[in-house]
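Structure in, sequence out. Go:
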């Protein structure tokens, strides 16, 4: 394991969270020069259609798998050179399955018994499912207004669920305070090194599904930013393996304008983000006031020639309905934000029509039924307007 801040190296023989010197995110490192000789794109032929087909660049232990990954890369029916990577088809209906499959796999291998997570929703369901599959206990802390599906799923998987009157940052504080005393291993975003390893497989899949090509752009909904960080790591690994050259996609991080710490830091040319005050958006997964890996995300945007884009809840809902009607893809609000961002980036000329761009749908709309329903139905008449039983034309 290598610290992404100071470069300190750690053995991977016991469970770890972050660098003990500076709190930096730890990256798993592999002997890529030796792998290069025998691990090629053609090596993948005939392997299981899950993220574990990239076993050489994942931990070498028995995986806890529910068939995550190898999701479809759909050619857009509306935009000639756009593709939709549909992560809604993962177990538990979101891209979180990848990271938690890897994290729970390692926790089981290390002999950890109890796992804890603060989550805006989908990571909680994924942890609960993989912990159930592994026979481990999971302790979940979610904002009390998370989408109902996540809560019902977690309870069904037998997780210990605590609803918190606050944001994911408040949940994270509770987990940090109680973990040592309770004997929990904290699998928070980027405080557990293997979630990045699971998420990075999205980039391996892109390159495999595109037969060795690298897209010119990737639009990615950025809450904690693990997928962005993981994919960037994977592109570097693939270059060292000789699968691709130095070409990289422009990485565009999309956030809700109701919680846009990365966009603000990007616009102000900062190296880290400031905590966003009063975070509010229908895209629960984007409600992360200060991503732990902010310094990594901002570096990636810089090094890739990318950008950060804010979109409004109205744009998200419009994109969600549009994608469903035009593409047949019923996206999560976070995923629909990718389309809203693509529209903006096409309008501004950042992406040209001939640029080959992948839009990530991070989850299924089926997990947000009450949110989408509430945002779609006509507004009910406010009680103050119902004077004398006469209902106004609202
Ligand atoms: Zn360090």
């Amino acid at each position: 394991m290598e610290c992404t801040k100071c470069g300190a190296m750690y053995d991977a023989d016991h469970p770890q969270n972050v660098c003990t010197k500076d709190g930096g995110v730890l990256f798993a490192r592999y002997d890529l020069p030796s792998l290069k000789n025998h691990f090629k794109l053609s090596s993948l032929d005939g392997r299981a259609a899950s993220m574990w087909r990239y076993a050489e660049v994942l931990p070498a232990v028995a995986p806890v798998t529910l068939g995550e990954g190898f999701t479809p890369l759909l050619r857009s029916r509306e935009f000639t050179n756009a593709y939709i990577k549909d992560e809604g088809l993962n177990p538990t209906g979101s891209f979180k399955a990848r990271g938690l499959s890897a994290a729970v796999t390692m926790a089981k291998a290390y002999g950890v018994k109890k796992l804890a997570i603060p989550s805006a929703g989908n990571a909680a369901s994924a942890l609960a499912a993989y912990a159930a599959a592994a026979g481990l206990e999971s302790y979940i802390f979610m904002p009390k207004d998370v989408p109902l599906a996540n809560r019902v799923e977690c309870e069904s998987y037998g997780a210990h669920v605590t609803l918190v009157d606050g944001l994911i940052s408040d949940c994270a504080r509770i987990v940090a305070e109680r973990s040592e005393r309770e004997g929990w291993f904290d699998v928070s975003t980027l405080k557990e090194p293997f979630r990045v390893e699971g998420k990075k497989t999205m980039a391996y899949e892109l390159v495999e599904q595109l037969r060795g090509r690298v897209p010119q752009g990737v639009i990615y909904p950025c809450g904690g930013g693990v997928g962005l960080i993981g994919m960037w790591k994977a592109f570097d690994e693939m270059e060292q393996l000789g699968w691709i050259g130095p070409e990289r996609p422009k990485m565009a991080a999309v956030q809700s304008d109701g919680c846009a710490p990365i966009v603000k830091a990007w616009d102000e040319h900062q190296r880290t983000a400031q905590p966003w005050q009063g975070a509010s958006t229908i895209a629960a997964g984007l409600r992360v006031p200060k991503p732990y890996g902010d310094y990594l995300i901002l570096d990636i945007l810089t090094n890739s020639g990318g950008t950060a884009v804010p979109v409004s809840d109205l744009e998200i809902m419009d994109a969600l309905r549009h994608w469903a009607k035009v593409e047949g893809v019923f996206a999560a609000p976070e995923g629909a934000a990718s389309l809203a961002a693509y529209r903006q980036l096409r309008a501004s000329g950042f992406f040209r029509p001939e640029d080959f761009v992948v839009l990530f749908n991070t989850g299924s709309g089926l997990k947000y039924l009450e949110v989408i329903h509430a945002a779609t139905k006509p507004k009910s008449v406010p009680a103050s307007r119902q004077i004398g039983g006469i209902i106004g034309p609202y």
